């Protein structure tokens, strides 16, 4: 596969993700202005997506819109990842009662990945699309996931991170001390991350879902994190308890 093919594929997905954000018909100009593509490059990719049946082109308005083929493409994934939907419903209840972003994360290689996000309306909201990758050893969701591993397994993960990313090395002893706090408290709390002024409270989802460990994250304001911690933690634990010990197949 050539570098040009990889770049075109990346741009194709970026266009589809832009439709997901905007949720309206988009013109070539809209897309190129937002994504920084040359018109000739953007037009070529759009034509390919139309030919493949993923986009529809309206010749009257000169705009593009995803076809139903896009909506069918990933319908099965939610069932595989989240079972009968009880996990998603739990996240939506948390969002409804708090107005905050609720994040569902799992491990993806040496990162924590946000696989589902329910957006909120609070001032703590930040752009957090599904697919976002965060450091496994320093993010709230990542630390919560790591706490389920043995110390030997965590040491191996730290060695792998240092091997593949020598410029940002992690110290196993430091990570393990943090993990011990997470295990003792039953939650992970990261301060001023992923954005200054916002902290993230994370707790584990019981069981193994489609062979994956999962964790739920909820943002808190750093300025009042200690006042918010206990109520937010109680709410998270109550909702997670409603899942019981059942794990998706």
What would you say this structure looks like, in words?
The two termini are 35 Å apart. Helix 1 (3-22) packs across helix 3, helix 2 (28-35) packs across helix 3 (39-51) and helix 6 runs antiparallel to helix 10. A hairpin with a 4-residue loop joins strand 2 (55-58) and strand 3 (63-66). The strands form two sheets. A six-stranded antiparallel sheet has the order 6-5-4-9-8-7. The chain is of the alpha+beta class. The protein has helices at 3-22, 28-35, 39-51, 68-73, 75-82, 86-98, 140-146, 151-164, 172-185, 225-241, and strands spanning 26-27, 55-58, 63-66, 102-108, 111-118, 133-135, 188-190, 198-209, 212-221.
Give a summary of the structure in a few sentences.
With 249 residues, the protein is α+β, with helices and mostly antiparallel strands. 48% of the residues lie in helices and 21% in strands. It has a six-stranded antiparallel sheet.
Number of strands: 9
Describe the strand arrangement of the main beta sheet, using strand numbers. 6-5-4-9-8-7
DSSP helical segment count: 10
> Which regions contain 5 or more consecutive residues with pLDDT less than 50?
245-249
Major sheet: size, sense and barrel closure? Answer: 6 strands, antiparallel
User: Helix/strand-derived class?
Assistant: alpha+beta
What helical percentage do the residues reach?
40-55%
**So what's the overall shape?**
globular
* Rg calculated over all Cα atoms: 20 Å
Overall pLDDT level: 85
Taken in chain order, the helices and strands follow as: HEHHEEHHHEEEHHHEEEH
C-alpha end-to-end distance: 35 Å
Please report which band the strand proportion falls in: under 5%, 5-15%, 15-25%, 25-35%, 35-45% or over 45%.
15-25%
